[in-house]
Description:
By secondary structure, the chain is mainly β.
Amino acid sequence: xxxxxxxxxxxxxxxxxxxxxxxxxxxxxxxxxxxxxxxxxxxxxxxxxxxxxxxxxxxxxxxxxxxxxxxxxxxxxxxxxxxxxxxxxxxxxxxxxxxxxxxxxxxxxxxxxxxxxxxxxxxxxxxx
Length: 128
């Protein structure tokens, strides 16, 4: 049942108007709120020029101090966070499972580049 909720959540997120359009390189929703124990899948859309780049997901209030939780080059960083990249759709997706209130913070969708990495953030709120 959890897999189908994640897939449904991903489909809903990709169809709502909350997906950012102002960030040309990487975009996602700005805010998410879920209940304790739930799983989420977050879609991160990226520019076509980054199809062959590594993508990653990090956690932290500020970009310069975030900690990488998932990376397309190292898919086994965490047991509760996974990442996958669909290059035909130009979307990488991050799934986080068994969320707790202490998981509430800022998260970053990011793409490695030859210069400065491209990223955008979202705020996750986990409530009981």
